[in-house]
Amino acid sequence: MQSAQLDATFSALADPTRRAVLAELASGARTVNELAKPFDISLPAFSRHLKVLEQAGLITRGRDRQFRPCTIAPEPLREATDWMQQYRKLWDERLDRLDAYLAQLQSPTSTEDRDDD
Amino acid sequence: MQSAQLDATFSALADPTRRAVLAELASGARTVNELAKPFDISLPAFSRHLKVLEQAGLITRGRDRQFRPCTIAPEPLREATDWMQQYRKLWDERLDRLDAYLAQLQSPTSTEDRDDD
C-alpha cells in the first residue's frame, strides 16, 4: 500500500512542471488559470499534469464548479520525504568520509604540521 | 540541468525494486547477484532496473568485468532530499495547523476550562 503511494508520489515529482506547481501551492490555494499562467503549454496539457498530481494524492481540487481551486495535500509528500530521510544519515556519513578523504589527498603536507609522529 | 537530474532521480525512485536496491546499497557495495537474490524477477529484468539507477546517477558500477559491484552514489539523492526539504517546513506547519484545528473540533468543551472569556 505505502509502496504504491511512494511509486505515485515519486512518479508525479519526476516532472519540472509538476514540481513547480507544488512549489507554487506551498504558499496557498490557486485556481487552475493562476497555476497555468507561468507555463508555455496548452491548458489541456497543463490539466493533465494536475490530473497526475491529483491522482497521486498530492493536490486536492475544490468543489466550486467553475474555479475548483487546487490545494496541496502534504501527507504523501511527507511520507516520501520520510522515506528519503531514513537513508540521508547514511549518505551524509558517506559524503563526510569522502570529503575527509579528499581533504587528506589535497593536503599531503598536513602531517608535517603535527609533532606527534 | 539540475531539473533534468531531479526528473531522473524521482523517476528512478518511482519503483519498489529500485528503492529496495538503494536501501540495500546504503549499507555497502553489492554484486548484481547479491542484489538480485531477494527479488522474484528475471536477471535481465533486474538488470534493467540497475540500468535505470545507473543512468540516473544513483549507483555506480565497479570496473571488475565479472562482478562489477554496485555502489550507491549519494549526491543526486541528497539533491532530491534537499528539494523536498525546502517545502517540508511549509507542509509541516500546515499539518500542525490542521492538527490544532482537529483537536479544537474534537474537544468543544475545552473553552469551559478557561476563565478568560
From TrEMBL, chains A, B:
Residues 1-92 form the HTH arsR-type domain. One of its GO terms (molecular function) is DNA-binding transcription factor activity. It comes from the Bacteria. Pfam families: HTH_20. This is ArsR family transcriptional regulator.
